Amino acid sequence: MKKFIYLDNAATSFPKPPQVFKAMEHFMKEVGANPGRSGHPLSLEASRIVQNTREKLAALFNIKNPERIVFTMNVTESLNTVFNGFLKRGDHVIITSMEHNSVVRPLKYLEESGVVSLSIAPCDHKGFLDTEELPRLIKKNTALVVLNHASNVCGTIQDIRAVKEAIREVPLLVDAAQTAGCYPIDVERDGIDFLGFTGHKALLGPQGTGGLYIREGLSLRPLKRGGTGSISEKITQPDFLPDALESGTQNNVGIAGLGAGVDFILQQGISKIREHEQVLTSTLLKNLFDVQGLTIYGPLKAEKQTATVSVTFETILPTGTEHLPSGCGAINLGWLEDGLSPSEAGGILNKKYDIFVRVGLHCAPLAHQTLGTYPDGTVRLSMGYFNTIEEMEVVAGAIRKIAES
Ligand SMILES: Cc1ncc(COP(=O)(O)O)c(C=O)c1O
């Protein structure tokens, strides 16, 4: 394969540290057994590996009791576990206008089925939630607030602590798909009641892994029931975590890899990872600011976003922002010329420059409506820990050429 620059880490991180696939190979070749099912040494070793991953995740998110973490296939399953296992008929749920379809679709379904009612807390044109607005949306029957910690479209990071302070005792579910592994998360400090995370993005694990943290005192009805390897004499589901929510044989090979990914993160240190990604973001932004015909979305400040930057090559004013003097999160609004669509520009980056990006709506139509980029979407450049500053300069150069051509 030709040399390329991978800028699609918001979809899934690549490459993975070698210890991730080594741990998976070790599990497949040397361990192989089903954890928690048998008493022989291989099964015990498999259990130890799974427990080790749980403990490392607990250390990363400052979770006191690792048993409050359950493994899932991905954050989509984690979120669905909360929606289907926590909410009951008549409940009211608040989400934000920056949510991913993994939040919006299951909740819309529950709303249309007459189970819950839904409010959408508005975010501004840079994607920030106005936390002071939240108390106004809370009703007597509000059972859950769902917050996308960082936008997968433009990187905007929300202040979890401020959200929790605004909603007080209402349980808070944080979708940490874009921040787990690259931004500090502390469930105690931040007041998180449910934390959903996916293993294959910044946690550097393989696809098909994820998890959910459930604060002590909160309980969920399982999404599925079945064999857990524990209290087999009973024909009813165990009521203790993690077994209550972990029926059937898990993706243990994946969990072994995820453990190695989290290990890598703990060894590097989350602050070093965050610092590097901030430098990548600020380098890219600095090199893009004066590109004529380019619009950049999001905070435009590395410290307020993840290493995800969205751009368009059409200098149209985002809908609803015409009256704003200079805001809306976009820049260069003076250059009102026709440009390339996101899919045309993304195609050129992918094919001509071997810069691998994602274009379109990124499974987040609500977020694009908020940013003013619906329905065409954006070209998304999403960096990861293994990208370099030199690559940012090459990428900015290619974008400049495309915008000028
Ligand atoms: C904010 C957000 N939530 C949820 C998801 C869904 O992740 P997964 O496909 O791993 O379940 C993504 C993935 O892009 C995301 O960015």
Structure description:
With 405 residues, the protein is α/β, with parallel strands linked by helices. It has 2 domains: 18-268, Aspartate Aminotransferase, domain 2; 270-404, Aspartate Aminotransferase, domain 1, CATH 3.90.1150. Helices cover 36% and strands 14% of the residues. The chain has helices at residues 18-31, 41-61, 75-86, 101-112, 134-137, 160-167, 187-190, 252-268, 270-288, 342-351, 365-371, 389-404; strands spanning 5-6, 69-72, 91-96, 116-121, 142-148, 172-175, 194-198, 210-214, 295-297, 308-312, 355-356, 358-360, 378-382. Strand 5 (142-148), helix 6 and strand 6 form a beta-alpha-beta unit. Helix 1 (18-31) packs antiparallel against helix 8 and helix 3 (75-86) packs parallel to helix 4. The protein is globular, with a radius of gyration of 22 Å. The relative contact order is 0.17. Bound molecules: pyridoxal-5'-phosphate. The site of pyridoxal-5'-phosphate has 12 residues, from helix 3.
CATH topology annotation of the largest domain = Aspartate Aminotransferase, domain 2
Unique bound compounds? pyridoxal-5'-phosphate
The radius of gyration computed from the alpha-carbon positions, rounded to a whole number of angstroms, is 22 Å
Element-by-element helix/strand order: EHHEHEHEHEHEHEEHHEEHEEHEH
Q: What's the overall average pLDDT, rounded?
A: 93
Taken together, the total number of domains comes to 2
Under CATH, the homologous superfamily of the largest domain reads: Type I PLP-dependent aspartate aminotransferase-like (Major domain)
Strand order of the largest sheet: 2-8-7-6-5-3-4
In helices, the fraction of residues equals 25-40%
Estimate what percentage of residues fall within beta strands: 5-15%
The number of distinct β-strands equals 13
Separation, N- and C-terminal Cα atoms: 27 Å
**Highest-level CATH class of the largest domain:** Alpha Beta
For the report, how would you describe the main beta sheet? 7 strands, mixed
> How many DSSP helices?
12
Coarse structural class: alpha/beta
